[in-house]
Write a structure and sequence with these properties.
It is built from 2 helices and no strands. With about 110 residues, it is an all-alpha fold. Helix 1 packs antiparallel against helix 2. The longest helix is centred in the N-terminal third of the chain and has 56 residues.
Amino acid sequence: MIQNIDEIQKLGKDNLDLAMKSFGTVSKGVQAIAVEVADYSKKSFEEGTATAEKLFGAKTLDKAVEIQSEYFKSAYEGFVAQATKIGELYADLAKETYKPYEGILGKLPVGK
């Protein structure tokens, strides 16, 4: 009986340790994603402001169209690059969050 209680306590402690590791990983991953999003937002705002200033200084319609086209191309490329980077961060987060559970899942009996 006491042996079973010790096993239950050990299992509970192990599960708590796994949950804490997982929580720490999720916390770090979400923080990294938030930093990336904030940096991208700041950069995007600064580029938009700089483009608006250039547009106000444009002397001809052709120059304004050229400035706007360059901005849209740059903004689109930046968005695609950032979306790819954020996607990779989420994938890494999922992998790192799953790691502590790999050992337990490997020990589970597989149904026949």
